[in-house]
Design a protein that fits this description.
four-stranded mixed beta sheet, 8 helices, binds 2-acetamido-2-deoxy-beta-D-glucopyranose, signal, three-stranded antiparallel beta sheet
């Protein structure tokens, strides 16, 4: 398993330098997020991530086409793996953003920021779950394994057979790959902390998520070509076969049925290569270079 020092070399664009930044100095950091297209001018009261943290979030979405019909039919979309079946940030027209933000310090008060039911469009608000407290920009490491209390984003699949699904394993295994092995982190930029712990946020670039996904999906599809080509509909991203090939290729064999903690991820794709593909649309504007044009007329950041 790579050490933090070697990851710092691998992730020059991540927020590593922020660790232990309680020195009273403001530093300019780069964050990423995925938001509904029409909310792309806002930053305050939103959750953001480093590259690996956001790769976890956006890779989860690849199985929703398979998982959501099943959990919606059973009215059981409450699990860690299926929470996003009803999350506006995982459906509809989305954009991926690169943000520049000055941060003074991080703390343990990571908050869930979302547009909650009965709130207006793009009206984000945050709450900190019990135990998440202390000053600083809230930070949570992407984790996998254990109970709900130990790791709410990717707890162990249910021991009861009808309630353990392929997507519980996919969720766990991508969290393990991008979190425990990749150093993924999430941060909450709450309005209450603005000016105190973070300030001067700006949107560096915002791109259409479907465009951004092309380079990332293309990398996985070319690596797993034999698997995808054997599907009845090799290009149907909503089909069980395509989704299964996607995770078998990304995470290695048995991704839908076995837990793959760090040290047991043989065959998984390299996190650094995936990050380059994930960032391609933000780094380049030209589609011929895997780039995506910046979305015009960014709304002013409130
Ligand atoms: C939920 O519904 C699907 C059919 O849509 C079914 O295959 C599945 O076994 C059901 N039960 C659970 C616990 O997911
Ligand atoms: C950042 O914020 C501080 C405090 O509000 C302000 O004094 C400073 O000019 C800002 N810097 C930039 C580059 O906007
Ligand atoms: C793709 O697969 C899904 C799930 O099997 C199916 O509902 C959908 O109709 C397929 N799309 C096309 C274009 O055939």
């Amino acid at each position: 398993m790579p050490t933090r020092a070697s990851l710092a070399l691998l992730w020059p664009y991540a927020a590593w330098e922020a660790h232990g930044a309680a020195t009273g100095e403001w530093r300019t950091l780069t964050f990423y997020d995925v938001v509904p297209a029409h909310c792309r001018g806002r930053v305050s009261n939103m959750d953001v991530a480093n590259v690996a943290g956001d790769m976890f979030f956006s890779t989860k979405d690849k199985y929703l086409a398979v998982a959501c019909p099943s959990c919606l039919a059973n009215k059981s979309c409450h699990g860690a793996a299926t929470f996003d079946c009803t999350n506006p940030e995982s459906t509809g027209q989305l954009v991926v953003r690169q943000l520049s933000v000055e941060v003074l310090a991080f703390g343990d008060a990571y908050s869930l920021c979302d547009v909650w039911p009965h709130h207006g469009e793009c009206e984000y608000s945050c709450f900190a779950p019990p135990g998440h407290k202390g000053p600083g920009v809230g930070r949570e490491r992407v984790c996998a394994g254990g109970s709900w209390r130990a790791c709410g984003m990717a707890p162990d699949p249910s021991p009861v057979v009808p309630f353990r699904h392929a997507w519980d394993y996919w969720n766990w295994n991508i969290a393990s790959r991008f979190g425990n092995s990749g150093g993924g982190e999430w941060y909450s930029l709450t309005a209450a902390d603005e000016g105190l712990h973070w300030r001067n946020a700006s949107v560096v670039k915002a791109i259409d998520q479907a465009c951004q996904a092309r380079a990332f999906d293309g990398l996985v599809v070319s690596r797993g070509a034999a698997c995808f080509e054997a599907c009845p509909q090799p290009a149907n991203r909503s089909s069980e076969c395509w989704v299964d090939c996607f995770f078998e290729t990304l995470l290695g064999p048995g991704a839908a049925t076995t837990l793959k903690p760090p040290g047991a991820q043989t065959g998984a794709m390299d996190v650094g290569h995936l990050a380059d593909a994930w960032l391609s649309g933000l780094r380049h504007d030209d589609p011929a270079k895997g780039g995506c044009p910046p979305l015009s007329a960014l709304l002013p950041v409130p």
